[in-house]
Write a structure and sequence with these properties.
The protein has about 475 residues and is α/β, with parallel strands linked by helices. It contains 14 helices and 16 strands.
């Protein structure tokens, strides 16, 4: 099947077996016998991938799916991007794997210089890192070092990685993430993330003025929980990813930045997901004219080549710092070469403009769902990033994770593989920045059709807390 209304023909997905197919099922059985508990589950992705081509994933049974998942990781320009892979391979052949912390080479220098060229105003220094998790840890250390203060202010609903410290203290998109660890960690205080659709202590859907969240910080957190002079910095995602593509307003940012300036807090922007074009700009900070003290990169920086992350900061924060952001595998020459080629490809291919066009398509195709379907509370899109929030009804806007799961299953059968996680109620699409408009529009239409199908007989919702009944965190 092809679609070619707006350009060259685009191959559309085809699913011709039950899922999982027989070949996938056999491999999944073998997987469950040897891999760890977190990987012994194929309910959400009932397939085994054989290969990726451009914007499609093909499983071992020959089924194909529109890929709205891989860019969640590290392929912002589709499967096996030629430029990044070729550059990494050339550097691998010439310089191999080397510990850049000790033996320096030219690729890390070229990448650092390019990042500073394109970074928000005020950024003059770059530190090597290997993953978003490590980058966030470094950002926290830098803020505490430069201010001499112990406390980090963060927000509910964010996700900052999988280290022991931040998993326990800041990865709170769902409460089971910090389970068994949170009580052992100090040094983090929280406020709700600015959400204009749903707000604490308010019934029903917004829109709400999200400056109320800064009011909460000023009138409660800083009065009853922590002295502002003890806060080192604010750790915040410019757009919440794991928590459901939640987009703050300009007014919120103005108020928050004013607090940072008033009390000398470091503004730490976690752009591990938003950075490198995801929101239609190279950095999400550009959308609101933000000038962070520390900016964290990961995921999309790799460009589909080799793992890499980065910590960017101002001169006063990082130039004389004793914090080491790197490690054994941070910024190997091949990873740096691939990341640099990825940046240039994003610019050369017009991927930022295409990402903005995808957001327009998403709102065209899905924007009327809240007015038509009782269980659709909100649709949000920014760049190549879409969130559809499901609720039990419009009056209470109680989350509807079972409805969400049913929509996802229907979409996989239709050949669309998006992002869903057990217990959540926002369906996410995270396509490559350069996904063709026709394929993306087709995917959005499948989302609308799947929502309509599930709405004919909505599943029973167990309730957010009842999902733990019987001591199990998963159902099914």
């Amino acid at each position: 099947m092809d679609a070619s209304a707006n350009g060259p023909a685009v191959t559309l997905p085809q699913v011709h077996t039950p899922l999982p197919g027989p070949a996938s099922r056999a491999l999944l059985v073998r997987k469950d016998k040897v891999l760890c508990g977190t990987l012994r589950d194929a309910e959400e992705v009932p397939l085994v991938m054989a290969r990726k081509t451009d914007w499609l994933i093909e499983d071992v049974d020959g089924n194909t799916f529109a890929d709205h998942v891989s860019a969640w990781g590290s392929t912002p320009l589709g499967a096996k991007p030629v430029e990044a892979v070729a550059a990494a391979a050339a550097a691998q052949a010439e310089q191999g794997m080397e510990i850049t912390d000790y033996v320096f080479s030219e690729p890390p220098l070229l990448l650092a210089e390019r990042l500073i060229e394109i970074a928000p105003s005020g950024i003059t220094r770059v530190g090597p890192s290997i993953s978003g998790t490590q980058a966030v840890e470094t950002g926290v250390k830098l803020a505490r070092e430069v201010t001499g203060r112990p406390i980090i202010l963060s927000f509910y609903g964010q996700y900052h990685g999988e280290s022991t410290y931040l998993t326990a203290a800041a990865s709170t998109d769902l409460s089971d993430v910090p389970s068994n660890s949170a009580q052992y960690v100090s040094g983090i205080v929280f406020a709700p993330y600015p959400n204009r659709f749903r707000a604490p202590f308010h019934s029903g859907p917004g829109p709400y003025d999200d400056t109320i969240y800064v009011d909460f910080i000023e009138q409660y957190v800083l009065v009853h929980q922590v002295d502002p002079e003890q806060v080192a910095g604010v750790l915040i995602e410019p757009v919440v990813g794991e928590g459901g593509i939640v987009i703050p307003s300009a007014a919120f940012w103005q108020r928050l930045v004013a607090l940072c300036k008033r009390f000398g807090w470091m503004l730490i922007l976690d752009e591990v997901q938003t950075g490198l074009g995801r929101c239609g700009t190279m950095f999400a900070a550009e959308l609101w004219g933000l000038e962070p003290d520390v900016l964290l990169l990961g995921k999309g920086l790799a460009g589909g080549a080799q793992p890499i992350a980065a910590v960017l900061a101002t001169e006063s924060v990082m130039a004389e710092s004793d914090v080491s952001p790197g490690g054994t595998f941070a910024w190997s020459p091949p990873a740096c070469a691939g990341a640099l080629a990825n940046i240039e490809a994003i610019i050369a291919q017009g991927a930022l403009a295409n990402a903005c066009a995808l957001a327009d398509i998403a709102l065209e195709e899905l924007g009327d769902l809240p007015g038509r379907i009782e269980q659709v509370g909100d649709v949000r899109a920014i760049g190549a990033w879409v969130g559809v929030e499901f609720v039990t009804d419009k009056q209470t806007i109680a989350p509807a994770p079972a409805f969400h799961a049913a929509v996802h299953q229907e979409l996989v059968r239709r050949g669309v593989l998006g992002i869903t996680q057990w217990g959540k109620w926002v369906y996410r699409m995270q396509p490559a920045l350069n996904m063709p408009a026709d394929l993306f529009r087709w995917s959005c239409r499948q989302v609308a059709a799947a929502v309509e199908e599930v709405a004919l007989a909505p599943p029973t919702e167990p309730g957010l807390l009842d999902r733990y009944a019987g001591g199990r965190r998963r159902t099914g």
